[in-house]
Amino acid sequence: MPKRPTSNAGDEVPLGTRIRALIPELTAAEQRVARLVLADGTAAAGQTIGELASASQTSTSTVMRFCKALGLAGYPQLRLALTAEAAREGGSWGGDLPADGDFGPEAGLAEIVAAVAGADIRAIYDTAAQLDLESLAAAVEAITGAGRIDIYAVGSSVQPATGFQLAMHRTGFACCIWSDVHSALTSAALLGPGAVAIALSHSGQTVETIEALETARAAGATTIAVTNFPKSPLASVTDIVLTTAVREGTFRPGGLSCTHPQTTVLDCIYAALAQRDRGRAEESLQIAVRAVAAHRTSKPRPPRTAEPT
Fold it and tell me: Judging by beta carbons within 10 Å of its beta carbon (0-12, 13-18, 19+), is residue 285 exposed, middle or buried?
């Protein structure tokens, strides 16, 4: 069975993160409750169950099912959890940057910059807060002894996957990234015990990525998934699940807003691997730096002049 994300060093996963991860599994009515709670948790905490049901155009029984889906005994526990989360965020989430990444139609550049930066910072913060350290340790352990490491990603997930592959190469870990479905399936089928397959998909519903990881697992490889949704189809076919915590915005849906959190998770794997064999990692990095040293200029380039007409 896959290793599910539960907590970071024993702390409870933030309620908002749990709700966002659960949304695809909820009914349409339960999703309305979820989105209302996410939009203003403080206001929801101050409402009765009937008021929240009315505001979300559902019923009290739907609100109760939503609570049960979160693993809560009932509505009073939801209100307490929302109040506690608001207090926790007030103490840990400093600064004046917005966290949802949205801005109005009349927003100026300063407001747009603040919205984008706030969303990215918050996504990285939430990802780190909920990252399951036991799953992370299991991933590091598997990669440390791997005879072969293959990475599967398509679309926007290719960017963080490529950065991870390059970082791994520079510290002595040879791995390959496959973004073409035919190449990925061929690679996966040729894996075996002792190999590791890593798949990235924000939604966890990308068919090409799921098929590659399924094939790798059937071949005997240890499989690792990085996804935003711990109950997604991708998570169901892997051995180790590492989750991100992304808040989608109007102009930045999951596929566009996931790259920084995915990079955070992969950077944690990379740093932990380097720390385990620090001497080897430092030596490999020095070799890599020397290899490209001759292609770095030490003098500023002269300014370009206009071509004569």
Answer: middle
Which has the minimum average pLDDT: 50-54, 165-169, 186-190, 257-261? 257-261
Euclidean distance between CA atoms 166 and 129, whole angstroms: 26
Q: Which residue has the tokens 């939801």?
A: 78
End-to-end CA distance of the chain: 70
Secondary structure (3-state) at 90: helix
Which of 191, 257, 252, 253 lies closest to 224, judged by CA?
191
Q: What are the respective helix, strand and coil percentages of the chain, to the nearest 5?
A: 55, 10, 35
CB 187 within 8 A of CB 292: no
| HSE toward the beta carbon, residue 111, CA cutoff 13 A | 7
Strand partners, 242: 226
pLDDT digit string, tens, across residues 188-203: 999 999 999 999 999 9
Q: How many CB atoms lie within 10 A of CB 111?
A: 13
Nearest to 41 by CA among 19, 74, 71, 24: 19
Distance CA 291, CA 21 (A): 43
pTM assigned to the model: 0.73
Checking DSSP bridges between strand 195-200 and strand 175-178, what pairing results, if any?
A: unpaired
